[in-house]
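User: Just a sanity check before I run the rest of the batch. Below are the structure tokens for the first item. I only need the designed sequence back.
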């Protein structure tokens, strides 16, 4: 039996901190510059009164690496932890954080964690593999659930947390370090180009509107930390916008023509995006069916 291809080997992931601005850090896989789809990114910002962490990753081992990255910089308390979505590789490590840490995410994310944790655990095990620590995860959802926007004052550092619309989940959040113009966007941006969006829940038109909104929200100086991979710039958002514009346009053209499966694959091939390592599995198995079923 052929072994299932994994986006990354979670058992081998080693996270390293990278200073993006004074007191603002990304925590990224060691191979972040070598591939277009690495393990999930995390990060943290250090203020005068404490620390805010973004993402807790897939299991207790990786969450401990994030906490270790914080402790290598400061002994201040981890006051807040923000999850940008309910996907397990962004929030399954929540249980490893101190009980005093206040967890923040969107109300839709809290609802998903509270109501469908086991379903998402099964998805993550299928995606990343069994016996890599996901089975031992304990569900822990928000202490504070937001519906729109909120801000956190860490003393000299302000973090703005905002929901600007559906991109990959109903609870996608943008986390912006105000003084430093650094944003963490989770899987709203899956990874830098050549990566493109994963339409795991479909709704391509809504996602496209959100990407356009994100582009307008940022400026050319903004440093963007995506869900996976190296940091990006505002211009890179245009790659995801162009992909969705072309995909939805081709789907509308193909719909109703009575094309065979092979003809649909040819019509929606979009080979100019085939440099992405996940092109075959995500474009053809996830995104193409999502846009065709929506027509």
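Assistant: Here's the designed sequence for the first item:
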């Amino acid at each position: 039996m052929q072994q299932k291809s994994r986006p990354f080997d979670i058992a081998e992931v080693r996270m390293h901190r990278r200073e993006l601005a004074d007191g603002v850090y990304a925590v990224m896989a060691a191979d972040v510059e070598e591939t277009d789809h690495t393990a999930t990114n995390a990060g943290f910002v250090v203020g005068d009164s404490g620390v805010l962490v973004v993402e807790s990753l897939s299991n207790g081992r990786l969450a401990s690496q994030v906490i270790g990255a914080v402790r290598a910089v400061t002994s201040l308390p981890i006051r807040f932890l923000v999850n940008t979505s309910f996907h397990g590789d962004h929030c399954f490590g929540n249980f490893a954080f101190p009980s005093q840490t206040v967890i923040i995410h969107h109300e839709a994310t809290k609802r998903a964690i509270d109501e469908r944790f086991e379903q998402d655990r099964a998805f993550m095990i299928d995606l990343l593999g069994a016996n890599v620590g996901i089975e031992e995860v304990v569900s822990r959802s928000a202490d504070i659930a937001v519906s729109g926007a909120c801000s956190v004052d860490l003393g000299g550092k302000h973090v703005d947390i905002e929901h600007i619309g559906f991109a990959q989940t109903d609870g996608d959040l943008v986390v912006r370090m105000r003084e430093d113009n650094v944003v963490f966007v989770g899987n709203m941006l899956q990874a830098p180009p050549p990566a493109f969006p994963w339409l795991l829940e479909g709704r391509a038109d809504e996602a496209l509107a959100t990407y356009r909104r994100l582009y307008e929200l940022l400026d050319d100086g903004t440093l963007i930390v995506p869900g996976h991979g190296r940091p990006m710039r505002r211009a890179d958002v245009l790659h995801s916008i162009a992909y969705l514009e072309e995909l939805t346009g081709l789907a509308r053209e193909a719909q109703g023509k009575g094309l065979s499966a092979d003809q649909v694959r040819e019509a929606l091939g979009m080979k100019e995006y085939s440099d992405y390592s996940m092109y075959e599995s995500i474009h053809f198995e996830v995104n193409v069916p999502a846009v065709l079923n929506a027509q």
